[in-house]
Amino acid sequence: MNKIRVMIADDERPAREFLKTILREFEDVELIGEAGNGADAVEMIKALKPDLALLDLQMPEVSGLEVVKLLRKTQMPLVAFVTAFDQYAVQAFELNAVDYLLKPVEKSRLAATLARAGERLEQTDWREGETEKLRGAVRVYEGASRPEILDRIPVKKREEIFLVPVSEIASIVADGELLRITTVANEKYDINFRLKDLELRLDGRKFVRLSRGALINLDMISRVSPMPGGTYQITLKNGQEISSSRLQSKILRTKLLRL
What we know:
By secondary structure, this protein is of the alpha/beta class. Helix content is 34%, strand content 31%.
């Protein structure tokens, strides 16, 4: 019997070590790689072509769900998501028959996942069906967990409250405990909010991350300049220049900078 070639992706090293320890107890498993973030997971899956990918759902910047969205059908392995309890995720995965493992992962539950993976790999047409189930789960999860999209953001300045249209925002950059909102007219407002929470309230087709601390409005991009090390400098229509992280540059290349 061929061994199941498995890769794991989790941004927390202890979680990866824990999974690796359990996987080594299975004689029919070959661990072929581990990734510390979602962007590296995408590249590793493309390069190593694992049979099964164990993807942490909650990785920052590029989540396990986004890894699935960045892969073509021909590149998609079997996937089991690893997650802390999340009612929306569990609902989406169970509705679409997508495998998942709750943290902390139990050996018996992982054994069941591996057994199912082995059965599916014996089917000649498994990839198309699994890809549709995964993409269905992504749609259900995002539809159930995403709060109402904002059209305006209330901000306070000199005891007055302004309603800033989201369509006029060029960038949102974390500055300590605050977020600095800059409009296309270079008006600046500070709000006390977490970037990842605000990101959930913005249209993901319009706003993208450039780094852990910066979101930009795609409609406000004037120029994209390649930089050494594979990163980019993004110039916005208001003259702002913001650099992308190495991690997000991979996503930009995949999602935005290719025809």
